Amino acid sequence: MDTSTPLRKSHKLDNVCYDIRGPVLDHAKRLEEEGHRILKLNIGNPAPFGFEAPEEILQDVMRNLPTAQGYCDSKGLYSARKAIMQECQRKDIPGVGIEDIFIGNGVSELIVMAMQALLNDGDEVLIPAPDYPLWTAAVNLSGGHAVHYLCDEQADWAPDMSDLRDKITSHTRALVLINPNNPTGAVYPPEVLRELLSIAEQHRLVVFSDEIYDKILYDDAEHVSTAALAAGDQLVITLNGLSKSYRCAGFRSGWMIISGNAAKQRAADFLQGLNMLASMRLCANVPAQHAIQTALGGYQSINDLILPGGRLKAQRDLTFDKLNAIPGVSCVKPKGALYAFPRLDPKVYSIVDDQKLVLDLLLQEKILLVQGTAFNWPEPDHVRIVTLPWVDQLDAALDRFAHFLESYRQ
After folding, report:
1. How far is the C-alpha of 127 from the C-alpha of 8, rounded, in Å?
2. Is the peptide bond prior to 183 cis by the omega test (within 30 degrees of 0)?
3. Would you say 22 and 213 are in contact if contact means Cβ atoms under 8 Å apart?
4. pTM for this predicted structure
5. Which of 184, 267, 291, 372 could be a cystine partner for 377, CB 3.0 to 4.6 Å?
6. Is the Cα torsion angle 398, 404, 405, 410 positive or negative in sign?
7. d(CA 324, CA 345)
């Protein structure tokens, strides 16, 4: 046996990328080991910034621990799925029964599971650019091909419908939308959702609607669930969870909802595949599922954070104002979620490698951001900033970002 032969990763990973926790983070870890304090604005993780889960959720999980030691149904606890079903009724999503709901170890697991159940090698999935990169990674890992349709920064980051239509081929199987959007903070109005649904219906595409930030909305923004606008013969798969709105990211408790009564019959074989994959992983984390009923049925404490005077709104406002005050930087005001996606004017900064930009910022200012191309944006002229730190932390960090940009050129 030749022990010098390197053991290489699978070729399935050749086109898989997740730079939110990528090479620049490795440099950040090295700096921390050397004793530097790094402000991590790279990941939407509420807990390190003082956003804690509601006490009643924690109490219910602890109270149910003695009965959460065994496996549950592969789709999830009945009580949790019933609470999700009632949430569907509140959001006007029709025709959702208990068996139409899958609970997973976070939305991330369910995205990968859905792509594995749907895609054959060479199948294409339309994904927004910029996107949450797990969608692209999951498609590629499942043997599919992620095709990115552009969102228009000049139109509040709404999808460019013409670009989307141009990218549909005979191999296209599904359309993904992220609303509210990560990384842009866009919240799509009903007319945009209806047009997306119309395009999907015309081409018989499965619609995946990622709505994990549906309760994190600012100003007068209103969220309408995509499935609430769909016809009964259109298959819509809605994804949501506890990570953001309920500050339970570490619980890894998410769910996937299948809607479209007539469409379910046409999709019976695909749904059988989902059942198979759900059974293979036995079940999702059982203790964390006990948080779902309490979260959805209780007082919605997220409202205190997003209304005037709330931390999240104050942090969004400060980030937006300070970014737009930097010469050569512009940012569309986020209407939802926990991020800003500012543009660095190429005529001012001439960035050719945005990963080098965020690495240089890390080394000089000890601030960790994520480059725009990590979200499959085609140009190296954006970065994503997490708006979770306290106002004074953000204020100081954005001052340092502005100072860095004053002299930075590539």
Report:
1. 29
2. yes
3. no
4. 0.94
5. 372
6. negative
7. 12
Query: What six digits make up the tokens of 344?
Result: 């660095």
Query: Using CA atoms, how far apart are residues 116 and 270, in angstroms rounded to an integer?
Result: 10
DSSP 193: H
Is residue 405 scored above 60 in pLDDT?
yes
Asked if the peptide bond before residue 180 counts as cis, ω within 30 degrees of 0, the response is yes
Span 24-80, pLDDT tens digits: 888 999 999 999 999 999 989 999 999 999 999 999 999 999 999 999 999 999 999
The three-point CA angle 77-224-146 to 5° equals 80
The answer to whether 82 and 98 have CB atoms below 8 angstroms apart is yes
**The two structure tokens encoding residue 115:** 């792509």
Strands (DSSP E) found in 57-144: 101-105, 124-129
Residues with Cβ within 8 Å of residue 97, at least 6 apart in sequence: 85
Burial classification of residue 201, based on how many CB atoms lie within 10 Å of its CB (0-12 exposed, 13-18 middle, 19 or more buried): middle
Q: Residue 99: name the closest of 278, 298, 231, 233 by CA.
A: 278
Percent of all residues in the chain with a pLDDT value above 90, rounded to a whole number: 90
How many whole angstroms separate alpha carbon 206 and alpha carbon 260?
11
Distance, CA of 125 to CA of 35 (rounded, Å): 44
Choose among 41, 34, 86: nearest CA to 385. 41
Question: For 285, phi and psi rounded to 5 degrees?
Answer: -50, 120
- In DSSP terms, which residues pair with 254 in a beta bridge? 104, 241
pLDDT number for residue 12: 81
Q: pLDDT band for 245, please (50, 70, 90 cuts).
A: very high
